[in-house]
Design brief:
With 206 residues, this protein is of the alpha+beta class. It is built from 7 helices and 6 strands. The chain is globular. The mean pLDDT is 86.
């Protein structure tokens, strides 16, 4: 009787132990991704059509503006420092874009850490977790938001899968590059495990 109970318990513990090890290994690789990129997050004033359109106009303008700012950047650290040194210019540029549309909302730009769920961008899949982020809020910031990747620059959607993979290869090692560019069942499973782990971690630890 005891043996009948013990075998399922051992199998149960072994299975979840295997999942735990697999999750931690996958998240270790995902951490290299989070350490290698600078995300971009923008929140609209409201969900009105005009405010959402204004958000996309600011997104495109600031992404292009930052591509120029980061033209000499070698890594995420350089990009974060450049962004911090140019926060006022970024705010001014965003304000100009809004004023051209007859919109007088204020814009606030900061570099901060922010949690992101799993997201895909034209051939590049980024795992869930906390990323360093250039964060823009427009007006009351009560509208829908938009996420993308500021460094390396794959935010505008003007480059295809191969070009985006090439850009990511400049900031990631072989394992982390495979994680963000492959879509095999094994990689999909790793992404799911990382998402569950990071989401729970974010809810518990904040």
């Amino acid at each position: 009787m005891k043996k009948r109970i013990l075998v399922p318990v051992i199998l149960f513990v072994s299975f979840f132990g295997f999942l735990a090890v697999m999750t931690l290994c996958a998240d270790k690789t995902a951490a290299k991704v989070r350490d290698g990129v600078l995300r971009f997050h923008i929140v609209a004033n409201s969900d009105s059509v005009s405010d959402q359109n204004a958000k996309f106009a600011v997104r495109d303008g600031i992404a292009s503006f930052c591509n120029e700012l980061f033209s000499e950047s070698k890594n995420k650290t350089d990009s974060m420092e450049i962004a911090r040194q140019n926060l006022e210019k970024i705010e001014q540029k965003a304000t100009e874009i809004l004023l051209e549309r007859g919109n007088s909302d204020t814009v606030k730009a900061v570099v901060r850490k922010r949690f992101f769920p799993t997201r895909s961008y034209e051939g590049v899949n980024l795992p869930a977790g906390v990323y360093d982020t250039l964060d823009l809020t427009i007006g009351e910031a009560k509208g829908q938001n938009f996420w993308c990747v500021m460094f390396p620059g794959i935010c505008l959607g003007t480059s295809g899968k191969m070009e985006n993979k090439h850009k990511m290869s400049g900031v990631l090692d072989k394992d982390s590059l495979q994680l963000v560019t492959d879509d095999t069942p094994q990689i999909v499973l790793k992404f799911r495990l990382v998402e569950i782990y990071q989401t729970l971690k974010n809810k518990i630890c904040g």
